[in-house]
Specification:
single chain; 376 residues; Rossmann fold; 2 domains; 17% strand
Length: 376
């Protein structure tokens, strides 16, 4: 009886992350925080450094939870964080950690402490093939991850990598990221006619959108090359970063795409743009598990993504995937020319995205917290 009663006690959970910057893990925390209280879990968000946090995320979180800022501008690699985290060990039943080096400092704190709360770590994609050629990094990663009671792989590929790294099934679980499907469906579309007029675009424009930070792993270069070969009425919108790096600006100049590539910067209401365009695209060559894929499909517009782990398992079938710029161009033109195919991709993508809800993700988190509390 006492064991069952424990399951209904309020749990205090600290969610630790480097900052509330413009990243996928950060956005996941912001969007999911409102679903914890229905599971009798009281979360707090703990950031190593507040200077890098954006107001949109901190304001949204403060409506629901306490934010604990361990420093304003201290270097992420300052070992003083270990002492801060040791103090947190006494305040929470569970600590759920995201990203490096927050996970490193928690692992060291556990080594130095006689008693710790339940420690849960989510792996968002740092594990990669490069670690096979770097034995020190791999040994350090194994040591850090072994300190956690459970490591969550957000994709089946990451789950398998964690199992290979740790060799212990009891320390690894697969819980996919989710999106707030109901909220996304309710979000209105940005006004297409108004947008086209403001941008000075022709009425027959085909709008492509990629939502991603400017990083080589996102392969904007491939998309620019495809744009160079698509008809002139195709325009590419870019969301996620406010400034384009020089290497991409040079590519825009070389391909004379100045009037067909439009930098929109960071938008909190990215989903409204996803609903406005004709295609959502993600050209990454590496992903942990992309929330952009799910949001794009939930927006009810055709989505095309790279055929890689972290995207592949999030789409209904191979018609949503491409390998090269040529295959991307071919699929864009084919979908544009076949209304029935365009309709089926919209409907199938929306239906499939509902398998990955934030509510299911948080429910799985809270069940894991309680299972680990029972055996602590």
């Amino acid at each position: 009886m006492l064991r069952n009663e424990k399951c209904y006690l309020m749990l205090k959970v600290g969610i630790i992350i480097n900052s509330l910057d413009r990243g996928g893990a950060e956005r996941l925390i912001v969007n999911s925080i409102k679903f914890f209280d229905i599971h009798n879990v009281q979360p707090s968000v703990i950031v190593l450094r507040s200077d890098d946090s954006i107001d949109e995320y901190t304001d949204a979180l403060r409506e629901h939870v306490e934010i604990i800022e361990l420093s304003q501008s201290r270097s992420y690699y300052n070992p003083i964080f270990i002492n801060d985290i040791l103090k947190l060990f006494k305040q929470f039943d569970v600590l759920h950690i995201h990203l490096f080096p927050a996970n490193l400092w928690v692992a060291i704190a556990k080594m130095l402490s006689r008693k710790s709360p339940v420690l849960i770590h989510t792996e968002h994609g740092i594990l990669n093939d490069d670690e096979k050629s770097n034995s020190f990094r791999r040994l350090l990663t194994r040591w850090v991850y072994a300190k956690f009671d459970t490591n969550i792989g957000i994709s089946e590929g990451l789950q398998n990598r964690l199992l290979t790294l740790l060799g212990d099934e009891d320390q690894v679980i697969y819980i996919p990221n989710g999106v707030d499907i109901d909220q996304l469906v309710r979000t209105p579309s940005h006004k297409r006619d108004q947008f086209i007029k403001m941008q000075g675009l022709p009425q027959d424009s085909k709008l492509l959108l990629m939502t991603a930070r400017f990083h080589e792993v996102k392969r904007h270069k491939l998309l620019f090359k495809a744009m160079n070969k698509l008809p002139q009425n195709y325009h590419l919108l870019l969301l996620g970063s406010d400034e384009m790096p020089q290497r991409l600006l040079d590519l825009v100049d070389n391909y004379q795409l100045e009037k067909r590539i439009h930098l929109l910067g960071f938008k909190q209401d990215a989903i409204s743009y996803m609903k406005m365009v004709d295609f959502n695209i993600l050209a990454s060559h590496s992903e942990g598990m992309s929330g952009v894929v799910l949001e794009s499909m939930a927006a009810g517009k055709p989505f095309l993504g790279s055929d890689i782990p972290g995207i592949r398992e999030l789409v209904p079938n191979s018609s949503f995937l491409f390998m090269t710029e040529e295959s991307l161009i071919e699929k864009i033109l084919k979908i544009s020319d076949e209304p029935s195919l365009e309709k089926s991709m919209r409907e199938e993508g929306l239906r499939f995205s509902k398998n990955f809800s934030l509510q299911k993700m948080v429910e799985s988190y809270c069940a894991l917290y309680r299972r680990k509390m029972e055996t602590k």
